[in-house]
């Protein structure tokens, strides 16, 4: 088995990214994203690639001022437990630092995962209203979502 690489995707990876999103969106773990949305935001993504196959994804969305969100974290079930999620989130954090981001947040059902990476639980009301009106409003769980907000100061 080759080493798992964390890479920026290209347009030929849209189907594999969509496959992972669709799987977890049907379970209610993440929001569904269309192929068009993935294509438009391809530069936000990082992928974990093994033997040419996408086995994990995450994206980093920028907000103003100096704030970013780690989102759409999904790992192929067959490859969970290999610290791929950690590697993907750390890639986002590193990119956020390079871009001059001051804080990174996530909405998650798995706050313990993020806490191990240094994130702290915060009140969702501290998140940008743009996040709520662009993403959360389209979620079937809105407004009674069980996700928790976590924040990492860089």
Kindly describe this structure:
- With 154 residues, the protein is α+β, with helices and mostly antiparallel strands.
- It has one domain (5-153): Gcn5-related N-acetyltransferase (GNAT) (Aminopeptidase).
- It is 30% helix and 29% strand.
- The chain is built from 5 helices and 7 strands, in the order E-H-H-E-E-E-H-E-H-E-H-E.
- It has helices at residues 14-26, 35-40, 84-99, 111-115, 129-134; strands spanning 5-7, 45-50, 53-63, 67-75, 103-108, 120-122, 148-153.
- It has a 7-stranded mixed beta sheet with strand order 1-2-3-4-5-7-6.
- The protein starts with a strand and ends with a strand.
- The model has no long low-confidence stretch (mean pLDDT 89).
Through-space gap between termini: 35 Å
Q: Can you tell me the number of structural domains?
A: 1
Strand portion: 25-35%
> Could you give the order of strands across the largest sheet?
1-2-3-4-5-7-6
Report the average pLDDT across residues.
Answer: 89
* Count of runs of 4 or more consecutive helical residues: 5
The CATH level-2 architecture is identified as: 3-Layer(aba) Sandwich
Rg over CA atoms, rounded to whole Å, is 15 Å
The unreliable regions are none
Q: Output the CATH class name.
A: Alpha Beta
Note the run of SSEs as H and E: EHHEEEHEHEHE
Number of strands: 7
């Amino acid at each position: 088995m080759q080493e798992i690489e964390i890479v920026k995707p290209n347009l030929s990876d849209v189907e594999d990214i969509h496959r992972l999103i669709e799987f977890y969106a049907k379970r209610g773990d993440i929001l569904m994203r269309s192929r068009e949305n993935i294509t438009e935001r391809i530069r936000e993504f990082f992928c974990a690639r093994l033997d040419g196959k996408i086995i994990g994804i995450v994206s980093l969305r920028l907000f103003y001022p100096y704030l970013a969100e780690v989102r759409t974290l999904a790992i192929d079930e067959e490859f969970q437990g290999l610290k791929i999620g950690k590697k993907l989130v750390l890639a986002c954090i590193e990119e956020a630092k390079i871009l001059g981001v001051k804080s990174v947040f996530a909405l998650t059902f798995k706050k313990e995962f993020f806490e191990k990476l240094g994130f702290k639980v915060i009140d969702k009301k501290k998140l940008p209203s743009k996040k709520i009106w662009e993403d959360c409003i389209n979620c079937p769980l809105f407004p009674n979502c069980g996700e928790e907000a976590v924040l990492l100061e860089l």
